[in-house]
Design a protein that fits this description.
It is a single chain. The chain is an alpha/beta fold. It has 2 domains: about 160 residues, ATPase, nucleotide binding domain (Nucleotidyltransferase, domain 5, 2-Layer Sandwich), CATH 3.30.420.40; about 170 residues, ATPase, nucleotide binding domain (Nucleotidyltransferase, domain 5, 2-Layer Sandwich), CATH 3.30.420. About 40% of the residues lie in helices and about 20% in strands. It is built from 10 helices and 10 strands. The strands form 2 sheets. It has a 5-stranded mixed β-sheet, sandwiched between helices. Helix 5 runs parallel beside helix 7. The chain is globular and about 60 Å long. Bound molecules: 5'-O-[(R)-(carboxyoxy)(hydroxy)phosphoryl]adenosine (KG4) and zinc ion. The site of zinc ion has 5 residues, from helix 4.
């Protein structure tokens, strides 16, 4: 049985085919809207929704064509039910539910962060339950204790900006465009370590909470009124990345100590950050724990993680949307820890 996965929570249209029988991802495709939103310096929700409408059918047709499969082989359609932009979510949900209804197969709504959190299980080197997960994306920064599928407990989260948001806002201050995270991280590689020092917010708070909004303000104070040279920009980028990465890695170690667990899973767009990975790997060998990452192409938003989360839920006996149910809703705001056990 094949599961079609649909992701449309923000500015990427992701589709994927997962084979439940063989337990394998057959293919996935992502269309990024970055080029379209770039001119506006951020995601324009209405444009995002309209573009998802344009992309979904050709992407799904391409997926079936490239894998040599037909829609008759689909056994379920999974889609991102939330959290995310309401219009973008509605496009994916309407499409997925329409396809499921037309084919007479069940649909299943998936929590976007559950998709991210389980995506390292798709990698060749995969963790075993239970583990600690660091979710670091554009909208979220959370540490979770993961006992199994749909069994998530929140250990701590950001009080203000998410880590990815802090990257993006700081990149904007440095004139790096949108989304600035990857560009800022690349620039930081040519920065001089220690040339500037920024605060490590809440690093000694003793709990697993984060706060990143002060970092961009600290950067603003440094760059205001300065006509920046390329090296100055790189040094600031490095100072910013050093600070954020040190806070994230320190709290991960604390979370592992606090829970007594020995496996850490890193998920979400910021999980692609090379310096974060290097520090976590170094801490892991120092403290004797294991770190797991999704395959690089599955770090940012994609349909594969949605199809895969659906596969794990279906295997665990999760309920699907009844075939004759016509109404549907999405959840722009939805706490991961509120998911009910299956
Ligand atoms: O998980 P994701 O694709 O979308 C959300 O659900 O938010 O994460 C996107 C976020 C953006 O803020 C982006 O700037 C950040 O991840 N990001 C990075 C890197 N690659 C993506 N931040 C730092 N370093 C990177 N290499
Ligand atoms: Zn995401």
């Amino acid at each position: 049985m094949l599961i079609l996965g649909i992701e449309t929570s923000c500015d990427e249209t992701g589709v994927a085919l997962y084979d439940l029988a063989s337990g394998g991802l057959l293919a996935h495709t992502v269309h990024s809207q970055v080029a379209m939103h770039e001119a506006y310096g951020g995601v324009v929700p209405e444009l995002a929704s309209r573009d998802h409408v344009r992309r979904l059918i050709p992407l799904c047709r391409g997926l079936l064509r490239d894998t040599g499969r037909s829609s008759a082989e689909l056994g379920a359609v999974a889609y991102t039910e939330g959290p995310g932009l309401i219009g973008a979510l509605l496009v994916g949900a309407a499409f997925a539910r329409g396809v499921a209804f037309a084919l007479g197969v069940p649909a299943i709504g998936i929590h976007h962060l559950e998709g991210h959190l389980l995506s390292p299980l798709l990698a060749k080197r995969a963790p075993q339950f239970p583990f600690v997960a660091l979710l670091v994306s554009g909208g979220h920064t959370q540490l979770m204790r993961v006992e199994g599928v749909a069994r998530y407990a929140l250990l701590g989260e950001t009080q203000d900006d998410a880590a990815g948001e802090a990257f993006d806002k700081t990149a904007k201050l440095l004139g790096l465009g949108y989304p600035g995270g990857p560009a800022l991280s690349q620039l930081a590689e040519s920065g001089t370590p220690g040339r500037y020092r920024l605060p490590r917010p809440m690093i000694g708070s003793g709990d697993l909470e984060f706060s990143f909004s002060g970092l961009k303000t600290a950067v603003l104070h440094l760059v205001r009124g300065v006509d920046p040279s390329a090296q100055f920009q790189a040094d600031i980028a490095r100072a910013f990345q050093d600070a954020i990465v040190e806070v994230l890695a320190t709290k991960c170690t604390q979370a592992l100590n606090q829970t007594g667990l020995t496996q850490l899973v890193v998920a979400g767009g910021v999980g692609a950050n090379r310096q974060l990975r290097a520090l976590l790997d170094a801490q892991a060998s120092k403290h004797g724990y294991d770190v797991f990452y999704p395959e690089p192409e599955l770090c940012t938003d994609n349909g594969a993680m949605i199809a895969f989360a659906a596969a794990l839920r279906l295997r665990a006996g999760a309920r699907t949307v009844p075939r004759d149910a016509h109404g549907f809703s999405v959840r722009p705001r939805w706490a991961l820890a509120s998911l009910e056990a299956i």
